[in-house]
Amino acid sequence: MAHFAQQEAQDGVRFTFDKWPNSKIEASKCVVPMAAVYTPLCRFPAEKQVLPYPPLRCRTCSALLCPYVQIDYMGKLWVCPFCFQRNHFPQHYHHMNENNLPPELFQMYSTVEYAPPSDRALPPVFLFVLDTCLIEEELTFLKMALKQAIELLPEHALVGLITFGTQVHVHELGCAEMSKAYVFRGSKEISKETILDNLGLSPSRRAFQPKSQQPGVAVNVRDGAFAIGVNRFLLPQADCEYTLGALLDDLQRDAWPVQPGHRALRCTGTALAVAAGLLGACVSGTGARIMAFLGGPCTEGPGTIVGKELSDPIRSHKDLDKDAAPHYHKAVKFYQGLSKQLVEQGHVLDLFACALDQVGVAEIKVAVERTGGLVVLAESFGNSVFKESFKRVFEAGENALGLAFNGTFEVICSKDVKIQGIIGPCASLEKKGPSCSETVIGQGNTSAWKMCGLDNSTSLTIFFDIATSEQSNAAAQAAGRPFFLQFLTQYQHPDGKMRIRATTVYRQWVENVGNGEELVSGFDQETAAVVLARLASHKMETEKYFKELDFGRRSLMQHDEFAIFPQFLFNLRRSQFVQVFNNSPDETAYFRMLLNRENVTNSVVMIQPSLITYSMQGPPEPALLDVAAIAVDRILLLDAYFSVVVFHGMNVAQWRNAGYHNQPEYQSFAQLLQAPLDDAQAIISERFPAPRLVVCDQHGSQARFLLAKLNPSATYNSAQGPPPGGDILFTDDVSLQVFVEHLQRLAVQS
């Protein structure tokens, strides 16, 4: 695995196979698809410099100059490895020779970042959309978090505020004399033109205003001036911090009365539509984020997910399977339209949902995912999961998210490779061409995608196909010959300027997959597990009668390179991504959104949690994810990504309750108790969203957070009981051993 991790550190990309079969027929025999997990903005190594000039492109296929081009130093030419076009070097490259190469031609610059000179730095835009149908305590928590976030924003960042309950209030921050807001009814869908007209942002309204009454000049932000609405609804943080603070201090719960036995009238869809229209009129084409804070389900207007009466239950997975959720499809259709509008504008929708009940994450998912938005799901705005996660969005330093805006992503590949599509936080730009495969997975039929929002851990899963072998390209696909892939990402850097990052990699063709030795020698088990998890989740959402992926092929069991792959499949089969029992549709949508956007390392932890044991007998050490790891004199630290569990064995808990750790002669025991807590805090501090911390004892009620993740090798009906001080699981689920034996039987039969 170290080899694959090294590739990820250098280029931010990992493939399921490092060597690919050289024919479509041979590729079809592989259980795992040919795919790559790519992190466009993975942290750039400090030793690499950002190049302060524009990249050099091939005049035919637009691929960027890379270390794999052929160079004619005498003729000052370079040959593109993708289309074999001969290109002339421009004048400023003419000093180049074998001993004096530009950085982009060095092997270590297989990933290179360009920062072309520009006089324009676009400010980031944050539009906060607040739900006021909250209890007083929750509203107070939310206002405190927002005040803290506003203080952390850069002074030049543009900020706006919309609040909603039964109606939508757009606050005009540019009116210093008094508090002023525009109100929209939440009970009906409002067109974009109506929104702009009511806000005084439509061209017709501005045209009939006398110049003396016009609050500004309607000029695009990209032209170096502020749009007319920027002077009123979006102000720099330095100019509106006091005004926003005063507005938040005066903000009250929604005044509309709630009838007994009814839910609050909450017009979430209308509020988000108004926010999208406002940003579209003011800052279209530049980086902006709508940050929505929801405390309950939408019950009014477009995007409604449940009726107003409490007797009307919110949809469950069973309702969705039986098509018995009357509001679901209409709400999803509304948010699909909203996502299309946001993608065209280049804007992001972030979702912070904090409630004990569902709020509609399952319906809003399409808009959040296609715009590359962040998502946090918690029980309360006072919960540490929300507070720590929201604070990290704006923090600078080593653990900063590195938020970027308004990006585009493009894949250029050798002619023998086709692109099937992408699963991840992006939207198709419908750029069709010869590199597009007829088989479509996720966002397909294109070679370019929009990424409105991305950060240092945002990852995409790109699926590839092998072109049909023909006489013209048989030589190119000969075993041992290389093929090339280039990933291009253009985005708005946090400093406001546009940058381009290019990653160019090559892999080799192999033949005779039936033998398999060469193919499986480059098999990445972790990446394969992540790709299959994302593919399974995608198919469960898009195919009504989806069956389990065929994991039982003979190739899975014949080679050492697949030694731990069955463990990943076992845990994937039991995970919340495949099993929806005991999870709401909102929770399932939340889990799958994070699985689809995180890098391989984080995604593997989601599928197969890590377990570390702490004891007096020695230093901390990894343990198998098995019930046999439980012992009365041990502490276990489980990292399940969404939760971090510190589990005390029965004896350890009794010693702690007796206060031994407070006595000087038992300092070693005090250190034992503190070590897993310190490690848990280290995990929480560098993860987004912040996981839930659970501290529990053996046989305690919260021990279920650990027990649910363990392999049930010892259950209530096992022939042999647990070892002394151990534990058993009360479950009928099969163990890893039974699962592997089942795979072996399938392998023999196939």
How would you sum up this structure, described in words?
The protein is an alpha+beta fold and 750 residues long. The strands form five sheets. Strands 8, 9, 10, 11, 12, 13, 14 and 15 form an eight-stranded mixed sheet that branches. Strand 25 (635-639) and strand 26 (643-648) form a beta hairpin. Helix 13 (525-542) crosses helix 16 (600-607). The model is unreliable at 206-227 and 551-555 (pLDDT under 50).
| Biggest sheet features | 8 strands, mixed
Shape: globular
- Rg on CA atoms, Å: 28 Å
Poorly predicted runs: 206-227, 551-555
Q: What class do helices, strands and sheet pairing give?
A: alpha+beta
| Overall mean confidence score, pLDDT | 88
Helix content: 25-40%
What percentage of amino acids are in beta strands? 15-25%
Tell me the span between the first and last alpha carbons.
Answer: 29 Å
Treating each run of at least 4 consecutive H or I residues as one helix, how many helices?
20
How many individual β-strands?
27
